[in-house]
Every structure is written in C-alpha cells, then in structure tokens.
C-alpha cells in the first residue's frame, strides 16, 4: 500500500497530541517521575496539624504519604510558586487570619516558615500569582476584600501593595449574601486584568493590574454579572483565554461566557446545571477546572458528592454534559489535575480521604485508580511544578 504524506489533513490531531503530551519523550518522562504534592487542611476541631506532603507517581496514580510538611493553623489554601522553591498558605482564622510564606525542601518534603503577615481581611480562602511570579493575590471571604503582596527574592512576603473591598448590590440569599464575599482571585493570561469571584454580590469583579506597582484599579466594564442568588465561587478560563466559566455555589450551575482578556468585555453563552436532572437533594458546588487540552471541564458537587464532567465545544465554547462521577467520599471541596494531565485528585473534606481518578481522553470520564485515607480534613492540593 502506498502511503502519501498528506500533512494538511492532520493539524488538529497533532495539536491534540501536543496538548496531552503523548510524544514518546514525554511519555517516558512521565513514566519514570513523581511529583511532590502539598495538601492543605482545616485544623480547627480536627486532628490535623497543618500541611501534609505526598509523593504522586504519574505512572500509576499512587499517592505515598510523606508526613507533616509544616504545622500551620487552618491552611485551607496552599499555592506553590512557579519556581518550585516557595509555598504560601492562607490561614483562615477570622480576624486573626494570616498569609504564611514557606521555603520548600523537595528532598525531605518539609516546609520552613519564612514569614507571616496579616491577610488584610478575614478568612482568606484562595491564593494565586501574577504571571511574573512577583506578586501574590489573596481573596478574603468574610471581609470581601482582595489584597496584593509582593514576593521578595528570598520568598518572603513584603508589605501589601493593594487592598480593595468588593462593591455591588448583595444577592437575595440572606444567610450567605449579607455582604461581599471574595472566594477566588486570579490574573488573566496577559497579566492585565485581575478577576475576583464574589459569592455575595453575584459578580466576577474585574480590576486592572499594574504589574510594576502591584496595584489594582476598577476596570470598565467593572464586572461580569450572574443571575441573582447564583453565588459565584470559582472561575476557570479556557487555555486560549477566549472563554470564561463560572461555577456558582448557591444554584449548582456553570455559566459560560465569551471573554476578552484585554478589555474585560463578556457575553453570556450558556447556563448549565452541574447535577443530574433527577437529583433534588442538598448541594453546594465548589471547584472548577478546565483540562490543559481545553477539551473538558470539571466541577465538584458537595451533597451529590461527585465530579461533573462537561465536554467543551472548541468552536463556540459551550458545554455538553459528559456525566457525573462519585468521589468516593463526602464534601469534595477541591480537586486538581496532576501535572501530567492524566489524573484528577479529589479531596473529600468530611471523610478524610483523597480519591485519584484516571481521565479518559476520549470521553472525559473518570475511573478510580487509587487513593489515600486518614488525611484529616483535606481541602486543597497543590503540586510542585518540577519532579
């Protein structure tokens, strides 16, 4: 049989393979390496002491416990710096809330505290970095404030360069929306805009970011609006930055938007439930993530105790349900995709376990492959970016 080289017929295939890292070199790399993972917990009223370390085998999906990495009060969110040398924890402790900086010893799986500063708000619940790695963003839930801290060369946090309180009319849920509640914060891929999901005011607030000064100013447009009472919790951007997805805690939906990362302009495309149509019990959504390939979107359901999977239409960004998958525990507050892109790890807060799933590339479906038990109140997992 004669084989003709019709390269023009295969660009989409090659792009897909590149996304998933399915070249021989990368596959061999993944088969022989493991990653350090840090797990944040709640220590109040639990047996937890702080941040725990695990080794994650990307060939098998196995988690191996490495013990307590650092004693720390209620480190409900842990973020590892892109250089892999430093970690930062949001210590969620009301008026005594702090942000703690650590150095990482990857060989011993231990953290050493560098310094600790007030969070400039109450109950910090999310941290992220700007694209230069020079600033740390903090979302403070109870106070509805957002803070920016410079990261010094030695990993320590400097005095804050910005603190803003979110504004907007509160939603109709009197128990959960009595005021602004910043729940998530991140910068756009071009490092120009900072987005803040505020559960209390049913908006994704948009701020312009000055990367030279570390300051924030209101953008125009100032926000992406959601349905009254939706309670936006977390946000995910598509890899190309053209689409924005918001998971709303109070009405268990994902809202899709087209989005301009330069101006902040948006247009709503779709609202879709994270739950099966026949489920009518209590539910609070939590995490949302787009797979690095851009083909799949995942959200977690607390109550239904599942991961909802959606396929993403590559042309228009709309979502199509691909099923829900039980997490093997209760209250999956957070989950993460491992650095290889092959596995999803869900932390079940109320059953003290982490479940590892293999991601099916063809369907987006999840199959259980491993897990770890006896982890007190796991609520966040972060991977060291280098093996």
What does this structure look like?
By secondary structure, the protein is mainly beta. It is 5% helix and 51% strand. The chain has helices at residues 11-20, 24-31, and strands at residues 34-41, 50-57, 63-71, 75-80, 86-91, 98-105, 110-118, 124-129, 135-140, 145-150, 162-165, 182-187, 193-198, 203-210, 215-225, 232-237, 243-248, 253-259, 266-273, 284-290, 296-302, 306-312, 319-326, 332-337, 343-348, 353-359, 366-373, 378-383. The strands form 7 sheets. A 4-stranded antiparallel β-sheet has the order 3-2-1-28, with no helix packed on it. The longest helix has 10 residues, at 11-20. The model is unreliable at 1-31 (pLDDT under 50).
Secondary structure topology:
Layout (H helix, E strand, L loop, with lengths): L10 H10 L3 H8 L2 E8 L8 E8 L5 E9 L3 E6 L5 E6 L6 E8 L4 E9 L5 E6 L5 E6 L4 E6 L11 E4 L16 E6 L5 E6 L4 E8 L4 E11 L6 E6 L5 E6 L4 E7 L6 E8 L10 E7 L5 E7 L3 E7 L6 E8 L5 E6 L5 E6 L4 E7 L6 E8 L4 E6 L4
Antiparallel strand pairs: 1-2, 1-28, 2-3, 4-5, 5-6, 6-7, 8-9, 9-10, 10-11, 12-13, 13-14, 14-15, 16-17, 17-18, 18-19, 20-21, 21-22, 22-23, 24-25, 25-26, 26-27
């Amino acid at each position: 049989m004669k084989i003709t080289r019709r390269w023009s017929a295969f660009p989409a295939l090659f792009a897909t393979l590149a996304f998933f890292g399915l070249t021989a070199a990368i596959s061999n790399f993944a088969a022989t390496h493991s990653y350090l993972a840090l797990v944040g917990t709640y220590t109040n009223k639990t047996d937890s002491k702080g941040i725990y370390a695990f080794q994650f085998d990307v060939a098998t999906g196995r988690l191996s416990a490495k013990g307590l990495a650092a004693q720390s009060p209620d480190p409900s969110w842990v973020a590892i710096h892109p250089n892999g040398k430093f970690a930062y924890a949001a210590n969620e402790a009301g008026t005594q809330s702090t942000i703690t900086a650590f150095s990482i010893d990857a060989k011993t799986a231990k953290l050493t505290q560098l310094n600790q500063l007030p969070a400039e708000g109450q109950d910090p619940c999310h941290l992220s970095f700007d694209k230069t790695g020079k600033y740390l963003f903090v979302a403070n839930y109870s106070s509805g404030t957002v803070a920016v801290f410079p990261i010094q060369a030695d990993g320590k946090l400097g005095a804050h360069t910005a603190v803003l309180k979110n504004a907007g009319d509160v939603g109709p849920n009197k128990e959960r929306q009595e005021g602004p509640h910043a729940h998530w914060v991140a910068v756009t891929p071009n490092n120009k805009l900072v987005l803040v999901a505020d559960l209390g005011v049913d908006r994704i607030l948009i701020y312009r970011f000055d990367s030279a000064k570390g300051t924030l100013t209101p953008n125009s447009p100032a926000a992406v609006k959601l349905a009254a009472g939706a309670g936006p919790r977390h946000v995910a951007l598509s890899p190309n930055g053209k689409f924005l997805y918001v998971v709303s805690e109070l009405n268990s939906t994902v809202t899709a938007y087209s989005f301009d990362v330069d101006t902040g302009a948006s247009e709503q495309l779709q609202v879709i439930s994270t739950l099966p149509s026949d489920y009518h019990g209590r539910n609070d959504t939590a995490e949302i993530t787009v797979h690095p390939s851009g083909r799949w979107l995942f959200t977690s359901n607390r109550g239904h105790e599942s991961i909802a999977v959606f396929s993403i239409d590559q042309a228009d960004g709309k979502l199509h349900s691909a099923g829900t998958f039980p997490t093997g525990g209760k209250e999956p507050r957070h989950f993460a995709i491992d650095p290889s892109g092959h596995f999803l790890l869900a932390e079940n807060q109320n059953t003290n376990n982490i479940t590892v799933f293999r991601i099916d590339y063809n369907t987006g479906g999840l199959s259980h492959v491993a897990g770890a038990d006896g982890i007190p109140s796991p609520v966040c997992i972060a991977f060291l970016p280098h093996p």
